Structure formats: C-alpha cells, structure tokens
C-alpha cells in the first residue's frame, strides 16, 4: 500500500483548490449568484462570502434553500446565471450541477463539506491518485471547481463556513476577521466534540479559531460545559443538561431546584429575574462545579470530573456573547426563512439585533407549544427496539422540528439511549424527518447519516447529515416502511460480526453497561484522547498562516 499523504499536504491541496476558486472569482465581471444552506452553517458561509465579495467590489445576489434538489437545479438552469457559488451544499448534486448548469462561459464553485454522493461523484470526478483511503480527484472542467475537504481525505473538524473562510482568505488577508463566522458555523453544525476530558473544537476548526482569537473576535476560556449559559435560568440549564449528566438533576426540574437551594444559590436576583449560569459569582460557580462532580461520583458516572470544556465568547456581539446561543439564533432565523436577517446579524447590523428579538420570541413560543404537544401526546411516540420515533404529523411546524428533536433527544424524556427520529408533515405530500443521536452513541460508532441515507433510499426519499444529526424527506404515507427499514438496518448492524458494523453502528457490547464500565470507558477515553491529541498536534500550530499568510 502506498504511503499515506501527511495531513499538512492534504491541507495544502485543499487550499490550492480554494486559491483556484479565488482566482476564478477575481477574474469575473458580472453578477455572482450565491446559493447557501438555510441553517447556521449556511448563514455563516453566506455572510463570509457576502463580506468578501463586497471587499472585491463584486455584484452578487444571495438566496437560501433547505436543500438543493434536482428541481431546484432545473429552476436555476432557466435563469441564465453566468457564475454560481454554492455554499454549504452542492457536493451531493455534482452530477446534476454538471449536467444542467454548466455550459460555455458559465462558472460554478461548490464550497461544501458534505459527503460527495455516489454516482455523481465518480462520474464527475476522475480519480487521480489513490493513496491508502485518500482519493484526490480532479474536475473535468476548469470552470467547475469543487472545494471540499473530503476530496483530500479531511473528513471532519471543518464546516461549510470553514471552507467559505478559506476561500475568503485567498481573496484578501483582510478577511481574516471573518474567522469568527467560520467558528460559529462549526458550532452550529454540532462540531464541538470531546476527546477524553478535552471538549471543544479541534483540527482545522481550531486553526480558524486561532485566527478569531488573534483578531480579537472570540475569547476562549475553560468553564462548565452546560448549554444556555446566558439565556436559560440556571435551574433549567441544569435540568436540560444531559451531557454532562447529573444524576437526580438532569431531566428533573424539582431535583435541580432542590440542588441549588441546598447549595444556597438563589434562583432569582434582587429584581426577581431568573439568574443564568453567567450571572453566578466565581465562588458560586466553583461551588456548583464541585457539587456537580460529587453528584456524578455518587451516581457512579464514568469520569465524574469531565464537566469542563472550552467556552467561546463572541467579543463583538454584546447581545449574544455565548457562541452556542448565537448559533442557535442563526438556526432559528434560517429555518423561519429569515436567512438574510441571520447574515445581517453575522455582519453586526444594529437593526438586525433589534429585529431578531420578536422573531426569537415567536420561535421560542412555537418550540414550547411543540414540546408540550409531544409531552402531552405520548401515543405519538413509537418506542421500538433500536430507536424512538415521534410521529408529529401536522402538530409540529416544519421549521422548528430540528430544534425540537434536539431538545427532546437531550431531555431524558425518551426511553433508553437510542436515536430519535421525528416526522412532520410539510404540506406538499412529503414528510420531513429530523434524527438525533446522543454523544455517547456517536462515541460508540453510530453514524446517523448513513442510517438516514439507507432508510430514505428504501422509500424513495432524500436525506443526509452527520454522525449525530441527520435529516431527510420522504413521501407522506411511507413513514411505517421507513421505520421498519431503519429498525432492520440497526438490527443488522448489531448482529454483524463482533457486534460491529461497517459504519461502526452498534459497536456497544453488554460489558460496557456493567459494573466496571467507568474504568474501561476512562481507559478508552484516555487512549482515544492521546491518539487524537497526537493527530491534532500534527495538524495544528501555524497551519493556515503557512499557506495563507498572516
Ligand atoms: O434538518 P435537521 O437539522 O434535522 O438536519 C440535520 C442534518 O441533516 C443537517 O446537517 C442537514 O444538513 C442534514 N440534512 C440533509 N438532508 C435533508 C435534511 C437534513 O442532509 N434532507
Ligand atoms: Zn454544514
């Protein structure tokens, strides 16, 4: 077997491709059409490109789509666009793009990090070198540039906005200030992960983060890794915390309230307003952290002290200091068809910050209504052997289902540590599916993207996503068949030789649930941590500066 190409060289090849794309942009006169994904990562990608094109004094128009379907491509083909840039999408439709949009004097850049789909990829891209599992590909047309790290064997720790940022950096060093958006996009795409006790952004994401720190846009500190630091009442933040799990408190409002009372931490301030985690004094935070660790020890949780992680603070967004929360806001805006408002927030328009308030209020209300509906209509939940399914029909609006599924899957409300699939009607004869798996399932090797892709194929739908979060669209009426097919896929995965699946689905063995699970987990975590740290060290350092200049 030929030698594996070092990570630095693979990054260099990716950046060379981004530079080619940058040159294509610089040499073009006329209007550029930007088409981006409607979620947080797509909005950040779009904001990066908008600002970068403004700096180049290029004309552009921007639109957002939920997904790039074949119909969408056919519509685009009618528009006579001379230059299209796809952001955070497009890699799954290379064949459709090549066959329908390309022509003499038409330029297309696909700036994406999603999987390159089957036949489309192999038709469009000619394998050039094959070294170990890494396949470097060359496009057949100089006017169709595919900037996707997967082409270079970089399969994780980079988001769509990270790629858009690389592209922007090749246009001008001034665009280094846009690194903040590359980080927010990655956070919105659930790319914060853990390596052993180490919890945060890794790999290329961490390189981009360094740029954001250097330009004074983001401050990183270590802190309690609990969601909702500045927006959720502290007792709610603890109640909703599933990872880290706090026995007797996670999933129990009364447990959480009682716990805080015993610690002498007041829930409200002197004005009667709910206090958030960020309102606590240093002393209170210290006390809270050490008591959480004690509770976790009492509950025999593995690695009770693994409750800290990197906290990312946005220094130029006083209304949304917590990067996680800002990412959630962008997702909310995008999913309500307000991607442009998200872009304005990213670019710090004061009007956008006042407009978003009412949008968020109605969004929160809708999420609250949807969660209540699910909690009060337990018959809508189908608990099967291998996963839980929520059949919400028209009772939960399509634009909140991703958040609702994330909240429900983290809430401890569903039985067992199984993936959750939620179904809602979209009103056009289709059903939208959102699926989520917990961090612990992902660590065991679950890949929800593969499960989704295989499941929707059975019923003639479309889908994709990542290991811990995936989504799809299937014809109305095919939900049962989809569920049966997912159950079969998961069952097969469990019974495949040694309990392992090609995707690693169901690697879990009974042993891990037994008494010495904690010890074993700890050892595995440490090993994985060391291995990953070594890999990371190779990648980090001055990676981007070396290729792009400071
Ligand atoms: O829509 P939702 O947030 O549940 O999607 C989770 C993930 O699945 C996202 O990364 C999204 O890009 C992906 N997805 C997809 N195809 C769809 C729907 C979602 O690839 N039809
Ligand atoms: Zn993305």
Explain what this protein looks like in three dimensions.
With 550 residues, the protein is of the alpha/beta class. The protein has three domains: 7-184, Alpha-Beta Complex (inorganic pyrophosphatase (n-terminal core)); 230-367, no CATH class; 377-493, Diaminopimelate Epimerase, Chain A, domain 1 (Roll), CATH 3.10.310. 45% of the residues lie in helices and 17% in strands. The chain is built from 20 helices and 17 strands. The strands form five sheets. The chain has a six-stranded mixed beta sheet. Strands 2-1-3-4-7 form a five-stranded parallel beta sheet. Helix 2 (40-55) runs parallel beside helix 6. The protein is globular. It starts with 6 loop residues before the first helix and ends with a helix. Zinc ion is lined by residues 41, 88, 113, 159-160, 189. Cytidine-5'-monophosphate is lined by residues 67, 402, 434, 462-466, 469-473.
């Amino acid at each position: 077997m030929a030698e594996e190409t070092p990570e630095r060289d693979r990054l260099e090849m990716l950046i060379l491709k981004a530079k080619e794309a940058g040159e294509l942009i610089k040499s073009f006169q006329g209007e550029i059409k930007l088409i981006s994904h409607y979620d947080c990562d797509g909005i950040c990608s779009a904001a990066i490109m908008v600002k970068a094109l403004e700096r180049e004094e290029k004309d552009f128009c921007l639109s957002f789509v939920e997904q790039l379907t074949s119909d969408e491509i056919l519509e685009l083909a009618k528009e006579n666009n001379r230059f299209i840039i796809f952001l955070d999408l497009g890699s799954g439709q290379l064949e459709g793009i090549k066959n329908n949009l390309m022509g003499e004097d038409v330029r297309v850049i696909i700036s994406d990090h999603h999987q390159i789909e089957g036949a489309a990829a192999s038709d469009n891209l000619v394998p050039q070198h094959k070294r170990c599992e890494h396949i470097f590909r060359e496009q057949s047309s100089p006017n169709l540039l595919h900037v996707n790290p997967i082409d270079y064997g970089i399969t994780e720790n980079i988001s769509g906005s990270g790629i858009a940022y690389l592209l922007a950096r090749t246009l001008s060093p001034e665009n280094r200030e846009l690194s903040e958006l590359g980080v927010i996009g990655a956070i919105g795409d659930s790319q914060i992960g853990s390596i052993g006790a180490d919890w945060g952004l890794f790999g290329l994401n961490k390189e981009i983060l360094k740029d954001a720190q250097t330009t004074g846009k983001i401050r990183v500190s270590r802190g309690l890794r609990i969601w909702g630091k500045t927006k959720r009442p502290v007792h709610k933040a603890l109640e909703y915390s599933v990872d880290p799990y706090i026995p007797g408190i996670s999933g129990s409002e009364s447990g959480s309230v009682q716990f805080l009372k015993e610690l002498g931490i007041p829930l409200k301030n002197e004005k009667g307003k709910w206090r958030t985690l960020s309102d606590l004094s240093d002393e209170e935070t210290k006390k809270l952290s050490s008591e959480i660790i004690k509770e976790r020890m009492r509950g025999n949780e593995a690695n009770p002290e693994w409750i800290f992680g990197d906290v990312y603070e946005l220094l130029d967004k006083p209304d949304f200091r917590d990067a996680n929360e800002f990412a959630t806001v962008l997702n909310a805006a995008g999913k309500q068809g307000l991607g442009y408002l998200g872009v304005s927030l990213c670019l710090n328009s004061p009007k956008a910050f006042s407009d978003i308030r009412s949008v968020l209020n109605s969004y929160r209300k809708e999420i609250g209504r949807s969660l209540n509906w699910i909690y009060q209509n337990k018959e809508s939940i189908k608990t099967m052997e291998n996963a839980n399914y929520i059949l919400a029909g028209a009772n939960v609006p399509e634009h909140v289902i991703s958040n609702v599924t994330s909240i429900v899957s983290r809430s401890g409300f569903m039985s067992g540590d199984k993936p959750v699939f939620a179904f809602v009607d979209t009103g056009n004869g289709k059903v939208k599916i959102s699926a989520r798996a917990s961090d612990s399932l992902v660590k065991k090797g679950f890949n929800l993207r593969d499960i989704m892709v295989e499941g929707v194929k059975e019923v003639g739908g479309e889908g994709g996503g990542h290991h811990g979060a995936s989504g799809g669209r299937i014809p109305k009426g095919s939900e049962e068949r989809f569920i049966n097919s997912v159950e079969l896929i998961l069952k097969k995965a469990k019974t495949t030789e040694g309990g392992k699946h090609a995707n690693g689905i169901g690697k879990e063995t009974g042993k891990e649930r037994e008494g010495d699970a904690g010890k074993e987990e700890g050892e595995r975590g440490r090993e994985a941590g060391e291995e990953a740290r070594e890999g990371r060290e190779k990648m980090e350092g001055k990676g981007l500066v070396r290729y792009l200049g400071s």
